[in-house]
Design a protein that fits this description.
Strand content: under 5%
Strand order of the largest sheet: 1-2
Largest sheet: 2 strands, antiparallel
Shape: globular
Mean pLDDT: 88
Low-confidence stretches: 456-463, 514-528
Order of helices and strands: HHEEHHHHHHHHHHHHHHHHHHEEHHH
Distance between the termini: 50 Å
Number of strands: 4
């Protein structure tokens, strides 16, 4: 595989598929859908070469590709992945074909356009995870806005335009501020290349002045906080998640928001270490508030999709708490929890979508007894629910345990209280998830629903109301890979941790240095 531009192939295969889909006649929706499924599936298969060929034990970027683009402005085409990005790249390439397969019966209008937008979204997300040029990263970061705005605004619910506009304005505003920060880094270091800038910053005398670090850190952090979204920048999320079609919701929750947490770890902490250290308490407070707030508000929702939406705010708060602590354990737990959150929350949204397709409602009080009518569905829902609640031997437990352990170990910054309060989020998640399961899945069957196996009895006339069939083969094919990952990571997480260890240790080791050593020779050197 030496010499093969593997990253470019994975990156641009979906874009090529989107271009091909444009030439499919509009009256052949099945062709567009199959094309999108094949292209995204092939992209996933090619990306598996990254997993099996990944060299553990090194923090260096792998499969790097460099080419001049706008050399007069210091802008180049530079791609690469390391232990921080490998899991998210694989998560993205896995989730997109599952999304396309899952909506084959729900997206029936403008199928060609939907396929194009999904494939374009995949290229945009992958670009942010692979780009090692700051300007190139910004292009892919903003590119995500267009297809997601279309997915929500065209195929969403009744309030889709309002939700799409809110999402667009929030994230675009953050992106513009980040662009100012990127230009600031270029003016100070003379390059947009991330690797070159990082080498310059870590060299003796190369650290950025403290006052500049604070401003640049704030510019980057605002964009990523909105994308995550970190409390209190979450106002766009509930409406966008609830109004978006199921496929778009899964893309947003499972992969798109991870660009925000990835950005904190990739850019904010390594490029502006002193500012990041100064922001530890602020970030920890916001993350902990998000954990508790998201869980409490989720417990008050009556719409299943909004329950999962607010639970996403709570669970992404764990990721941010681990990033704030900046210990080896907490950072490694955060990277793994990015993957776990994508798998578990994506699966929950898929299950809610499958149920809504049958019952035509997401209101919990309108359901009841679903487990008796759809036992396989209820079984899968139970597994995913336990995963989201962090039950031992599921993926959620491993990530949250590492995050809380690593946060508690950060005695230097006194973060033990945040670990203790954050742990309450685990209990609260079990409360609202079990509450939702009990009312939707258990109890008497709502008379409005019936099973395909119902037979006439006592002259009742047979089936009544909506007939709820259990999971189809297609739906089980969508959920099976996610269920397998839940169990695999929960029982044997070592292959995932091995791939992230070196990159995480490189960052945490540098952040553990005394501030005078971090800024060695820098113009803004701080004296303890």
């Amino acid at each position: 595989m030496d010499g093969l531009p593997l990253l470019s192939i994975v990156l641009f295969l979906p874009l090529a598929g989107a271009v091909l889909a444009l030439f499919v006649p509009g009256d052949q929706p099945g062709t567009s859908r199959r094309l999108a499924l094949v292209v995204s599936g092939v992209t996933f298969l090619v990306s598996l070469l990254l997993w099996f060929g990944f060299a553990t034990g090194t923090a260096a970027f792998q499969w790097e590709e460099r080419a001049p683009w706008l050399p007069e402005y210091g802008i180049g085409y530079h791609l690469g992945i390391d232990g921080i990005s490998i899991l998210l790249v694989l998560l993205t390439t896995l989730m997109l074909p599952l999304v396309i397969l899952s909506v084959s019966t729900t997206i029936t209008t403008r199928v060609k356009e939907f396929s194009v937008m999904v494939l374009l979204m995949e290229t945009a997300i992958l670009g942010t995870l692979m780009a090692l040029d700051l300007f190139l990263f910004y292009i892919f970061f903003e590119l995500m806005l267009v297809p997601m705005y279309m997915l929500v605004g065209i195929w969403g619910g009744e309030r889709r335009l309002q939700a799409a506009m809110k999402f667009f304005l929030f994230t675009m505003a953050g992106g513009v501020v980040m662009l100012v920060g990127i230009i600031g880094v270029y003016l100070l270091k003379g390059s947009f290349d991330y690797v070159d800038v990082l080498k310059s910053i870590t060299a003796p005398g190369g650290a950025l002045p403290i006052d500049m670090q604070l401003w640049l850190f704030a510019a980057f952090a605002l964009a990523f906080a909105i994308k995550v979204p970190l409390f209190p920048f979450h106002a766009w999320l509930p409406d966008a998640y609830s109004e978006a079609p199921t496929g778009a919701t899964v893309i947003m929750s499972a992969v798109m928001v991870k660009v925000g947490t990835y950005g904190f770890l990739r850019f904010c902490i390594p490029l502006f270490p002193t500012a990041a250290h100064d922001a530890v308490w602020t970030a920890s407070i916001l993350a902990t508030v998000g954990i508790v707030y998201g869980a409490l508000v989720a417990a008050m929702q009556r719409d299943m999709k909004r329950v999962v939406a607010y639970s996403s705010i709570s669970h992404i708060g764990f990721v941010m708490l681990g990033l704030s602590a900046m210990t080896t354990e907490s950072l490694q737990g955060s990277v793994l929890q990015m993957l776990n959150h994508g798998v578990s929350t994506g699966a929950l949204f898929l299950l809610v979508g499958f149920l809504h397709e049958r019952t035509r409602t997401r209101i919990i009080s309108d359901l009841g007894g679903i487990a008796k009518v759809m036992p396989i569905f209820a079984g899968v829902f139970t597994l995913v629910m336990f995963s989201s609640a962090g039950l031992p031997f599921t993926n959620g437990f491993v990530g949250e345990f590492l995050i809380l352990t690593g946060t508690f170990k950060n005695a230097t910054d006194g973060l033990q209280p945040f670990a203790i309060i954050g742990a309450s989020g685990v209990v609260l998640s079990a409360v609202y998830l079990l509450w939702m399961y009990q009312r939707a899945m258990q109890g008497p069957v709502n008379p409005a629903f019936s099973s395909p196996d119902d037979r006439p009895s006592n002259g009742a006339g047979g089936r009544t109301g909506l007939v709820l069939a259990d999971l189809t083969v297609r739906e089980m094919m969508v959920l099976l890979p996610l269920a397998a990952l839940i169990i695999w990571i929960g029982v044997y997480p070592r292959p995932f941790l091995d791939r992230t260890a070196a990159s995480v240790e490189a960052i945490s080791g540098r952040m553990a240095l005394p501030q005078t050593e971090v800024l060695a020779g820098g113009t803004g050197a701080r004296v303890p």
